[in-house]
Amino acid sequence: MDENIKQNLIAAGCGEDIITKFDECGCNEEKCCKLLEKHRKELLDEIHKKEDNISCLDYLVYKINKEGLK
Length: 70
Prior knowledge:
0% strand
């Protein structure tokens, strides 16, 4: 595997398992792209979960500021 591609995969948050699977895809661009799209979806799902956590915290701070701790 090209070292630049490997460094990009690492920078994209890919673990060794994904890097290995990517390498096993060889020159099959369709397989490689599907693997990367799956990883992208997983990262985006994590972001959405964190956004939900932040929204809950924001609401809690709002309620505390408005009503105090009851």
